[in-house]
Amino acid sequence: MGVKAARVVFPAADRAEIAEAVAEILATGMLTLGPYTRQFEASFAAAHSAGWPAGEGPHPVATASGTSALEISLRAVGVTGRDVIVPANTFYATAAAVLAAGGRPVFADVDAATFALSPDTLRAACTPRTAAAVLVHIGGLISPQADDLGQVCQERGITLVEDAAHAHGSTYQGRHAGSFSAAAAFSFYPTKVVTCGEGGMILTGTPSLADEARIYRDQGKGSFGANHHVRHGYAWRLSEQNAVTGLVHLRRLAEFISRRREAAARYDEALAALDGLVPLREPDGCQSNFYKYIALLPPGADRARFKQELAERHDVRLAGEVYDLPLHRQPVLAEFAGPSLPVAEEICARHICLPVHSDMRDDEVDQVVTAVAAVYGALAGV
Questions:
Q1: C-alpha–C-alpha distance, residues 315 and 310, integer Å
Q2: In this structure, what are the phi and psi dihedrals at residue 90, rounded to the nearest 5 degrees?
Q3: N or C: which terminus of the chain carries fewer CB neighbours within 10 A?
Q4: Which of 255, 354, 201 is nearest to 9 (CA)?
Q5: Contacts of 82 (CB under 8 A, 6+ apart)
């Protein structure tokens, strides 16, 4: 049997529980901003509670998507008419959220060891108009320089925000994703470690920012049910059906991460024998959820052919890159392109993502390793 790029895991018992809850939701007519949303918010915050200063959170706000969670966070910290630093090797939605919040994206290079902003690349991208910077946890890896980035931001009067779309349950030195910035945005898109179909979550240590986020997510209304609008908000509410799906799935977060880390360790051991194929290593203190297992092909390798050979000859399909075309080379963002960003350009061109599933079997990992070794050896002439 083949190995798919991704697999959404909902055991039968979970599907039955969700179906029963959805029937109840439909019977009551409480379809949005109800008890399941509040339970999901509280449970997600509890699952990401390590590392926050005492009494400072996390305060959760559920939203319709990860993109809306990031846009709301940027609106709440105030970026209108100002620059926001974004790493070049992130998904389009990171830049789109900046634009929708009224900011101007400024693309920055990254550290090849973490795929994230570094203090040096952050400083190089700063302008007199910089209001905020977005730290993206690519593949679920939290950079060990997160606190250093926060210090640079503090020195320059810049607000640090986390795009934690990939980082459910990830930690650095025992601190959860979300605890390194003013606000963090998580995504529950179907491929994420925890999903509710569509949805997002904001975590913040500032109660007033959480209050602002709740206003923005509900059409900018001062209170639920009132025709009294105090912000330029939008329909960014999470449905109760999505909330209960996320609530049930969240219970398996530790189980899912454990299995993903076991698969990643098996990859690490096997790929060590392939000279020139270099995995993205976890720095000391990092505990990734391995939303993605990232490895770098040798310079000049034909990634498209590599992936094609894996699929056609071995029935192994790789997960999507993170990401194959950097933001400053995206046609829709051409007006913000700026200078060449060599590290981001190189890692975007060279990396691959091996499939990692939350219920991945050892035989599937071994099938991927065997296929990668065969194709890599053939293309490298060894």
A1: 6
A2: -125, 175
A3: N
A4: 255
A5: 103, 104, 129, 130, 131, 132
Residues 6+ apart with CB under 8 A from 339: none
Q: Which domains does the chain have, with CATH numbers?
A: 12-250 (3.40.640.10), 253-380 (3.90.1150.10)
DSSP secondary structure, 70-127, as one string: HHHHHHHH--TTSEEEEESSS-HHHHHHHHHTT-EEEEE--BTTTTB--HHHHHHH--
Please name the amino acid found at residue 329: R
Helix or strand (DSSP H, E) at 183: strand 183-187
3-state secondary structure 332-353: HHHHHCCCCCHHHHHHHHHEEE
Full-model pTM = 0.97
Over residues 279-330, the pLDDT tens digits come to 999 999 999 999 999 999 999 999 999 999 999 999 999 999 999 999 999 9
**Which residue in this structure is represented by tokens 């290593």?**
281
The residues, any chain, with a CB within 8 Å of residue 258's CB and separated by 6 or more, are none
Return the pLDDT at 225: 78
